Amino acid sequence: FYFRNKHRPFLLFVSLLHVHTPLITTEKFQGRSRHGLYGDNVEEMDWMVGKLLHVIDKEDLKNNTFIYFASDHGGFLEARRGNSQLGGWNGIYKGGKGMGGWEGGIRVPGIVRWPGVLPAGTVIDEPTSLMDIYPTVVQLAGGVVPQDRVVDGHTLLPLLRGTVQHSRHEFLFHYCGAFLHAVRWHQKDSGTVWKAHYATPVFQPEGSGACFRRGICPCSGDGVTRHDPPLLFNLSQDPSEANPLSADTEPL
């Protein structure tokens, strides 16, 4: 692929099966990690990404190749074999895969590399979306997104280059299946990010942060709790969504 296209623009999309159950790991990587089969899977994925980057570097394409590494959802908490957790870990964030509202199902890694254009070591703490990949790629290719419809994504390039300080996403809607579970408001004048939850999954067992008895959390019916008024969080101060705001504690 590289040898045919290295002298002209190319798009390479690699959709890895890794860190997703059933955790198919080749023999070479089984038992390599101190963190069981899931860790082996992470190490094999890391090796595969490294092989791709090595070819880009070796072919002297590093400075003019835009690379974006991300995931489509947070770790799958319910995946277990005995006492072994097979589905990852979401750190300080509540919830996981299949939950349309909690941060653990929505926040994903986002790593960009473009040495010829972007400085290393920059951290951008702004809400973006995987919907932004499409308009970003279109802009990189010199094209224009269709003008006859609403395109929900926004190009990432101004944010990455530092020509703007804030994401263009003022609102992001988070669905579980066809059901709206939460909405995020990125307040432009202050940069504060608020989130309102209209429905949240009923964790089983209670307080576990996941739906172990069901295997994965449902989106509707008796498996969710509806909130009216919605649960409101200040994600800028409370990214773990531990302290819902109320009119008593936050009159404003």
Question: What percent of residues are in strands?
Answer: 15-25%
Largest beta sheet: strand ordering: 5-6-7-8
What is the rounded Rg?
Answer: 20 Å
CATH architecture descriptor of the domain at 2-169: 3-Layer(aba) Sandwich
Instruction: Report on the biggest sheet.
Output: 4 strands, antiparallel
Report the CATH superfamily of the domain at 2-169: Alkaline Phosphatase, subunit A
* Strand and helix order: HHEEEHEHHEEEE
Instruction: Compute the separation of the termini in Å.
Output: 57 Å
Fraction of helical residues? 10-25%
CATH level 1 name of the domain at 2-169 = Alpha Beta
Find the CATH topology of the domain at 2-169. Answer: Alkaline Phosphatase, subunit A
Globally, the shape reads globular
SS class: alpha+beta
What's the total helix number? 5
Mean pLDDT: 92
Low-confidence stretches: none
How many strands? 8
GO molecular function: arylsulfatase activity; metal ion binding
Domain Sulfatase N-terminal: 5-142
Cofactor: Ca(2+)
Protein name: ARSD Arylsulfatase
